[in-house]
Design brief:
By secondary structure, the chain is an alpha/beta fold. The protein is built from 12 helices and 11 strands. The longest helix is centred in the C-terminal third of the chain and has 17 residues. The radius of gyration is 19 Å and the shape is globular.
Amino acid sequence: MKESKIVNLIIVVLSIISFGGCAVNKKVHVQKGFIHINNIELYYKVIGKGEPVVVLHGGPGLDHNHMLPLAELANNYKVVFYDQRMTGNSTGIPDADSITVNHFVQDLEEIRKQLKLGKMHLLGHSWGAALAMFYSIKYPDNLKTLTLLGCGGASTEYFGEHFENIQKNTSQEDRLAMKEIEQSDAFKNKELEAFTKYYQIAVKPLFYDQSLPERECFTYGDNTAKHQQAVSELLMKDLVEFDIYDQLSSIHCPTLIIQGDSDPSPCEGTYKVHKHIKGSKVIFLQDTGHFILHESPEEFFAIMRKFLKDEKSVNTSIPEEIEKRLKSVSF
């Protein structure tokens, strides 16, 4: 591996700045740029100072923009965002040799080393939670804490039910709207506006409140529009038979698992992850879907701040209906 080179821009911003709709009420440092790894460039953005909280976005194939509400933690922590290879502002090679779980794990490790983060708090959402688990299994000693949002499990066991639930939650009107966009030249040419319009509809069944995606107005980068499908398909091929439950026992840092009670991903998978990570805490938020940061921000940040400050202050919380459902399952 060639020695990585960091190109960055450091900006000192005064007063109140907004990241993804979140106000950071302090003098805050923003550092952004690219890390060069084996002929690709990974775009990163660091906001704030303090212990590092590294954020892994979902997808596969999306970018860091939908995770920007976490900049709210920058008043007390160094929050590190980056675009995974071939997404957002990052580059990559669209082939099966480059788009693998192992490369994504090594990209994260290179981010940690080149930004000199030392031990870090690691947080992943959805696919990012799966990536966080893969990384934590390989590099358990590099973590202060681990937070998994909407992880849905650690195998393909519940994939079928997850996609069935999405189909059930998609209205006929939305199906027709997506089909119309899919048939447009703009979408076939992977134009950003068409991509954004399509995914604004496509993510609706992942929300408890399906009107929220239109109000949130998610944004994506040009590379995301161009490469999301390819990245997703290549990684899903790499994950086709993955099952890492038995390896989760190697994770020994304080671990917090949060899932919405209306997430299409079955609660059984999330709870099974909890049972396989010793000492972990699991919390199911009520009236919340897959995008926890956007649907239950106040509750999430209250829990997250407590966990980062003192992990022992956070306890497992499972709504009665989910608890009854879990009792019928053998883990």
